[in-house]
Amino acid sequence: MTLYKQNFSIIISYLFILLIPSAVVRFGHLSASFFLITTIVDCLGAAWLLYLNQRTQANAIEQRPFPLKPIIIWGVCGIVLVLVIQILAGFIEQNILHITAKSLNTISLMTMMQQQPFLILATTIAAPIMEEITFRKAIFGGLASRLNRILAAIISSLLFAFLHQDGHLLIYTAIGLFLCWLYRKTGSIFTTIISHAGMNLIVTLLYLNR
């Protein structure tokens, strides 16, 4: 299977996974179980994308991956750096672009998480795995072999930002660009998975403990 087909399979799988919970709830009349179904589907989806990741051949970014120990170190350091980037981008949005710091999607999700704690699995583990394999490996990694890597990173990061649909385009684009850089730096998608999952976990815990 060519890299193009491999990346296409990852992207289609991800989009399909996003649609499954709504389809199940709508046709199965299971609206009361939407978040439970979402969590289960996301966890299974993350496992499936990890399987596809293991089956794919190395792309242009992954030709010289770091050993395991530096991958873990960079992943943990990336948690701190991505939080700093998020804070700085948020400052620019609020004080220069005059965009409110509140996110209705995030507030709604966190509120539901207080009532249904199992959602933490979806937001801190499953979602980072799926998003990193899709946006960093399949989209950025796929485009990097055809386009200028900076342009590939911008496209991937903008798509990543638009997917979240909460009005904070600059924050998510900045996060996406940093994670593209981190992926390129280490040559391993597991570095960015660690950073992304760690960031989501810290943000979630801070919100839930307010």
TrEMBL record:
Domain CAAX prenyl protease 2/Lysostaphin resistance protein A-like stretches: 116-202
Gene Ontology BP terms: proteolysis
Molecular function, one GO term: peptidase activity
Keywords for the protein's UniProt record, in alphabetical order: Hydrolase, Membrane, Protease, Transmembrane, Transmembrane helix
TM segment ranges: 7-24, 30-51, 71-92, 112-130, 150-183, 189-208
Pfam families from the UniProt entry: Rce1-like
Keyword Metal-binding assigned: no
Hydrolase keyword on record: yes
Protein family per UniProt: Belongs to the UPF0177 family.
Record's protein name: CAAX amino protease
Species whose genome carries this gene: Latilactobacillus curvatus
